[in-house]
Design a protein that fits this description.
By secondary structure, this protein is α/β, with parallel strands linked by helices. The chain has two domains: 214 residues, no CATH class; 213 residues, no CATH class. Helix content is 44%, strand content 13%. The strands form five sheets. A six-stranded mixed beta sheet has the order 7-6-1-8-9-10, sandwiched between helices. The relative contact order is 0.08. The longest helix has 24 residues. Strand 13 and strand 14 form a beta hairpin. It is elongated.
């Protein structure tokens, strides 16, 4: 035995013809708050045989006590098709649940005097007609009402309707393991979606019974029903959820959702896995030996700037600020290397002439003089750095420890400015590389070492390196005062990269899921 849940709307009961309508309507016309429903509308202006429609509440009131005498006036196209399906498939129904709408509580008298008011579309007055209809099918349906109570939140309100359907179907008490057929074609889109969503969550075996209209070989309009397994709907809902997660910047969560869904294109999954690796700054297919090459490093910087924007937009400030600090440091090293690569000066090392640009090495530990000169004199090291345009005279360089300044932020920014001070500098870069900056204002250190919470205002102050400003939006602070000047500096030094906006890439991946 199965359960059948049916939504209702204007399309459930139609007039086959309008010859009796005027007389029947006149009998109740002046009992209605609105008296403007005199003319039924043809469903198909070119084909009067398709029938006529009238607002459901009015139709129910007119025919409630006239059904036995005028049942030939009425047609139940969707219900006829559904019932034919159950009969053909020999499916026995234990219970029929019919959802009716009633918005009486949310519309005032001065609203329902107008024929276009949604109040007149309510199906609650169709109950007597449905009772009579199902008597011929030997069923006694149970009626449940969707009756919103908040003004301006009717059955076309998605959130309100979802709550109504959840509360209404939550009252049903029967074995949830039984097969539940759901017909959701009638009624508003909000009701249809809510019924689909709630039924999938409440019942184990759900089949959606839908009616399909077609024309036969004689060009006559016909209808037939089809039961669609809920797995198809569930699959669609999961894919839509995954798409939203991807475009919102949560590809890892999307990948987890898609793990158990069959039929997803392997190339789409591969692209999604790649973007998950990107969000984790992991490049499993990349040659590690190229990590410190200028093109690869620059590409990582530009991609990371987009990624930081996603993290800030999600209020994942710890990830964003940490990545921003790393991006700035990587930029300084990349820009310096790109400029010193053009220096042809040489020095004598162990009796051999060496280009000074070859005596600078960038590896995992950082940017330092090459190990071949590690044990050379301070004088030679200073000579190398001077020819590499490092501002040697500004710093006291004597011990091996002192020469590690080439990997210090304050040393790097001084070096790049000494090479070319005309590039666009942004306040956060200068503040972050200030040797004597106020550590209490270093939001990155506070977050990393003290597990502190952070407010939007703190992040804006940090990005601007200033507390005296009128900017109230994190994304504006980041895009206008950090990201754009950052990209300008990259372009100024002609660092090579390909610009593929992350948001566009995420949308392409989401669109590939079907």
């Amino acid at each position: 035995m199965s359960i059948w849940i049916v939504t209702t709307g204007n399309s459930d009961v139609i007039l086959k013809y309008d010859k009796n309508w005027s007389n029947l309507y006149e009998e109740i016309r002046y009992d209605l708050e609105c008296t403007e429903f005199a003319s039924p509308l043809p469903l198909d202006p070119k084909d009067k045989s398709a029938g006529y429609t009238i607002p459901a509440r009015v139709l129910g009131l007119v025919y409630a006590n006239k059904f036995d005498d005028y049942k030939g006036d009425l047609e139940f196209p969707l219900l006829d098709t559904y019932c034919e399906f159950f009969l053909k498939e020999n499916i026995k129904l234990e219970k029929i649940i019919i959802l009716l709408t009633d918005q009486t509580q949310i519309f005032k008298q001065d609203q329902i005097i107008y024929e276009k008011c949604p109040y007149w579309q309510d199906t609650c007055t169709l109950k007597p007609l449905f009772e009579k209809y199902f008597q011929t099918e030997n069923y006694q349906p149970e009626f449940l009402y969707l009756a919103p109570t908040e003004i301006n939140k009717g059955i076309d309100n998605w959130n309100e309707t979802l709550a109504l359907v959840q509360g209404t179907l939550g009252k049903l008490d029967f074995n949830t393991s039984k097969t539940v057929y759901v017909s959701h074609q009638a009624g508003t889109p909000a009701i249809s979606s809510a019924v689909q969503f709630v039924s999938l969550g409440k019942f184990k075996t759900v089949k959606f019974l839908v009616s399909n209209e077609y024309f036969d070989e004689n060009y006559e309009r016909k209808s037939q029903s089809e039961a669609i397994k809920s797995s198809n709907y569930w699959r669609g809902l999961q894919i839509q959820k995954a798409k939203q997660l991807i475009t919102s910047g949560f590809p890892g969560a999307a990948l987890k959702i898609l793990d158990n869904i069959e039929g997803i294109d392997k190339n789409a999954i591969a692209e999604l896995e790649n973007i998950v690796d990107f969000f984790n700054l992991h490049s499993p297919t990349t040659d590690d030996s190229q990590d410190f090459a200028i093109p690869q490093a620059t590409q990582r910087i530009v991609d990371t700037l987009d990624l930081i924007g996603f993290f800030f937009n999600q209020k994942n400030y710890l990830q964003g600020i940490t990545l921003l600090a790393a991006a700035q440091e990587t930029f300084l090293k990349t820009a310096i290397l790109s400029q010193v690569a053009m220096i042809n000066d040489t020095v004598i090392v162990n009796g051999s002439s060496r280009k000074v640009s070859d005596l600078l090495a960038w590896s995992s530990p950082g940017l330092f003089l090459h190990t071949t000169v590690k044990n050379e004199s301070s004088h030679l090291k200073k000579d190398i750095l001077t020819k590499l345009k490092f501002p040697v005279t500004r710093f006291n360089l004597k011990t091996d420890k002192d020469f590690e300044i080439t990997n210090k932020n304050f040393g790097l920014v001084a070096w790049l400015r000494n090479i070319d001070d005309n590039f666009v500098k942004w306040p956060l870069l200068l503040w972050y590389c200030d040797r004597y900056r106020n550590q209490e204002d270093d939001l990155r250190n506070q977050l990393m070492h003290n597990l502190r919470g952070v407010e939007d205002r703190d992040v804006i102050d940090y990005l601007l390196a200033d507390k005296n400003h009128k900017i109230n939006d994190v994304m504006s602070a980041y895009n206008d005062n950090v990201k754009q000047p950052f990209l300008n500096a990259i372009n100024y030094f002609k660092l090579p990269y390909k610009r593929e906006k992350l948001s566009k890439k995420l949308q392409e991946i989401a669109d590939s899921l079907i």
